[in-house]
Amino acid sequence: MGSYTHFESALIHGGIYGDRQTGAVNTPIFQTATYEQDGLGRNRGWEYSRTGNPTRAALEALIAELEGGARGFAFASGMAAITAVLHLFQSGDKIVIPGNVYGGTFRVLDRVFRQFGLSAVIADTTDPAAFQDALTDDVKAVLIESPANPLLTVTDIRALSEITRQKGLLLIVDNTFLTPYLQRPLELGADSVVHSATKYLGGHSDLIAGLVVVNTQETAERLQFIQNATGGILQPFDSFLLIRSIKTLGVRMDAHVRNAEQVARLLAGHAAVGKVYYPGLPDAQGYEVNRRQAKNGGAMISFELTGDCDCRRFFTGLKLIALAESLGGVESLACHPASMTHAAIPKKIRERAGITDGLIRISVGLEHIDDLKADLIQAIEGARM
Length: 385
Ligand SMILES: *Cc1c(COP(=O)(O)O)cnc(C)c1O
What we know:
By secondary structure, this protein is of the alpha/beta class.
């Protein structure tokens, strides 16, 4: 932190600001693979861009500062970031995840890491008793999202961290849905934060990126080794784009949340809408916990239509809101978790977690609220049979 004390200023001035050599107010894009060395064993701090690149380093310093961690790391995607973190563990270790974890996180554990002896154990992290039962001796970490995809389930990060700390487990929080502007898991006791920066941090649906922040130098050194050894790094241009996007994170999130709160109220009051999942609604699961640990409920909303509606017709009826994977961009998106984001999770496990075939998820964008409301209302009316 320099000459500022507020988070909004850190978004703009944090990390390594601008370019000292030229005075450029923006971080230059160091589009280079390698660096000339001054002599054998003598370089200027940079050797090869898989190992380190100044543009990526500026982004990594920025996210570390924003999350309040020791070091940050930038990867080519959220999944590359999560994969790098999972490389901290060994064959025989187990990772506890909730049943409604991001589909790709479940898939990489179940289909890739399991082949190497690292496996996932599913437990309800919102229920301390069920969670404690899952903590056998071979469990080495807990990986959660709060609010979790797609039912916006809130987990008490501080309460969970007290248990993981006592047992010597790593608590990893996927903070994609709220970003450090709305929630800072390391301050709540987590050990590591992961992001799909493709979402709100990027914010414009124009890049794929992932970030990790860890809270100790020791874990940072191990992760730096893994990042260089496995090589799933973020490119200089994409690092620049992400730095550029993060500068407006605060104003974007405020506007996303303003729209989302109105959409949630509209859905909750609509006769053709059944359950509404939004942590910003006072009767939502985890409302109080979320209020304690986050600034607000974010801008993701899931809901079900009543039995006399066809959710397929809802999706084809949307005119402004696009049917698409992903979230967190300026444009509003609707998705069908059962067949899209969570299709990798077996139907049985999915339904047990409450992800029904009629569930609809909305990423509320920055269009005018009246246009969003009108599109939702006409699509819901058209879904009535
Ligand atoms: C999208 C997403 C990921 C995966 O990130 P990619 O950038 O798509 O690889 C991980 N976790 C959550 C919560 C996500 O929404």
